[in-house]
Structures are given as structure tokens and as C-alpha cells.
Specification:
nine-stranded mixed sheet; double-stranded DNA endonuclease activity; RAG-1
């Protein structure tokens, strides 16, 4: 052991650290580095200059999304094994077919300004993006239906909610939120098209992830979907009804908005291809005023 090269000793040492887990994605994640021994990273990931001349390295800190999910799953390792036993499943046959449902949450944390002002000049509001593992299910090789082996008992508790990204930014600052959460969205999208291979209970198992954005309040949904703020005539984040229409018809509403459609409307807003007046244009895009950057799925928590 003593006469091994330094880098071998270093990597052996790393594996003894808490929170260190080796994992693999199949196929490899697009646009995400392959190294898995990643710590806390700069949330602006590569943006050297920042809009308001704030020191860029102070703006945000975050974990890489896949690394955070691996850590969360390893924390639940005993629960997963217990769930398999309770369901009478032989853990040695359940190595694939695991499905993990993740709830995402994002909200402003209000005023966090320094009282004595000795640190670097940063915005005085903060936003936290976090996630909760809601359920884990498995479909055994010869079975039709998936069996739930873990369900979060307190999904709205502070204890089950894991912070992913902390940022100094006002939640109404669409541009900065886009810059910081854009890479998070890219990582999430990459994970949807791949499977995580991770050792749980001494065996390599494969997991698929599904993400539900049910932890955003209305203000955040409007911000992430590029909609006008809550005072808008267009009262709903899921359909195009105006206040007047909604007051006349309180029952018959259908979900008509989609993320892709909002993107198209933003382009119309930006280019004004029909050379319309501001009012006509606004009526055409139905309250889309910025480029949406995060797809929030309309599901109930």
C-alpha cells in the first residue's frame, strides 16, 4: 500500500469520505461532465461576467443534479432494501426497473441582506431550488405492474427536502434565474433519457427518474414559464382565460397552455411578425412576455 503512486492513494482516500458514491449513467449524460467525485460547484457555471457587475463567484452555489440524486438515493438505501423485503421481493432479482419520482421546489427566501455590510456586494434577496424523492417503485422482470417500495411520508417537510442550488437573486429577476437554473434544466433533461447505475444493498441496480414541478408557487411558475406577473389580465398559468372570462365561467376550464407554445408566443412577442400595435400583440401572445426556460408540469402534489 505504502509504495503506490500518489494519485492511487488519493483516490483510495476519497472513497472513504462521507457522501462519496461511485455511479454511472447509461447512456452517458449529454452536456454533463463524466466525473462523479464532484463537490459544490459555482452556480453560474462558466459565466465569467455578470449582468449587474456583482462578483460572479458569489452569486450561486449548487450541487450537480445527478450527484445530489445519487446522494439522496444512498441515504434511502436502507428504506429501499426494507421495502423490497416487505413486499416479498428477492433483492438479487430486482436489479433493474426501478423508477424514482422527484418533486422539484423553488421559492424566494426573502431579504437576506447583511446587517453590517462587510462582505462582497451581492443582491439582498435569495432563492432556493430543492427536490424531494417522493416515491421509488420497481417492476420485477416477470411482473406486469410496478410495486411501490418507498413512499415519502412527509413530502412537505423540511427534513425530506434537499437543497440543490442556493442563489443570491430576486425571484423576479428572470434573466439571472435563467442563467443559473438553465444548466440545472439541461442536466434534468439529460437524465430523462438515461438510466442511473448505482450500487444499492451491495448490487448494481438501474434507476429511471421522473420529475414533477409541483413545488413552485404561482409567482415562480409565472417566472419560469415567461408569463406576466400575477396582476396580469391573463389570470391562469395553465390556460388563456382573462379575468373577465374567468369571472363569468368558474367551471369549464381546460389546460391549454404548453411550454412549447409559450416559446412560440415569446418569438411572436419578440419579432411582431404581423406589425401589430402593442395591445394587439399582447392579445395575441396572451400574457407571455419573456422566454420561458423551465417546463412546469401541471400535476397536483
Amino acid at each position: 500500500q505504502i509504495f503506490q503512486p500518489l494519485h492511487t492513494l488519493r483516490s483510495a482516500e476519497k472513497e472513504l469520505l462521507p457522501g462519496f458514491h461511485q455511479f454511472e449513467w447509461q447512456p452517458a449524460l449529454k452536456n454533463v461532465a463524466t466525473s462523479w467525485d464532484v463537490g459544490i460547484i459555482d452556480g453560474l457555471s462558466g459565466w465569467t461576467t455578470y449582468v449587474d457587475d456583482v462578483p460572479a463567484e458569489t452569486i450561486a452555489r449548487r450541487f450537480r443534479y445527478d450527484v445530489a440524486l445519487v446522494s439522496a438515493l444512498k441515504d434511502l438505501e436502507e428504506d429501499i432494501m426494507e421495502g423490497l423485503r416487505e413486499r416479498g421481493l428477492d433483492d438479487s432479482t430486482c436489479t433493474s426497473g426501478f423508477t424514482v419520482v422527484v418533486k422539484e421546489s423553488c421559492d424566494g427566501m426573502g431579504d437576506v441582506s447583511e446587517k453590517h455590510g462587510s462582505g462582497p456586494a451581492v443582491p439582498e434577496k435569495a432563492v432556493r431550488f430543492s427536490f424531494t424523492i417522493m416515491s421509488i417503485s420497481v417492476r420485477a422482470d416477470d411482473e406486469e405492474d410496478a410495486v411501490t417500495i418507498f413512499q415519502e411520508q412527509k413530502p412537505n417537510s423540511e427534513l425530506s427536502c434537499r437543497p440543490l442550488c442556493l442563489m443570491f437573486v430576486d425571484e423576479s429577476d428572470h434573466e439571472t434565474l435563467t442563467a443559473i437554473l438553465g444548466p440545472v434544466v439541461a442536466e434534468r433533461k439529460a437524465m430523462l433519457e438515461s438510466r442511473l447505475i448505482l450500487s444499492v444493498g451491495g448490487l448494481l441496480r438501474s434507476f429511471r427518474f421522473f420529475f414533477r414541478g409541483t413545488g413552485y408557487d404561482e409567482k415562480m411558475v409565472r417566472e419560469m414559464e415567461g408569463l406576466e406577473a400575477s396582476g396580469s389580465t391573463y389570470v391562469c398559468t395553465l390556460c388563456d382565460s382573462t379575468r373577465a372570462e374567468a369571472s363569468r365561467n368558474m367551471v369549464l376550464h381546460s389546460i391549454t397552455r404548453s411550454h412549447c407554445e409559450n416559446l412560440e408566443r415569446y418569438e411572436i412577442w419578440r419579432k411582431n411578425p404581423f406589425s401589430e400595435s402593442a395591445d394587439e400583440l399582447r392579445d395575441r401572445v396572451k400574457g407571455v412576455s419573456a422566454k420561458p426556460f423551465m417546463e412546469t408540469q401541471p400535476t397536483l402534489d
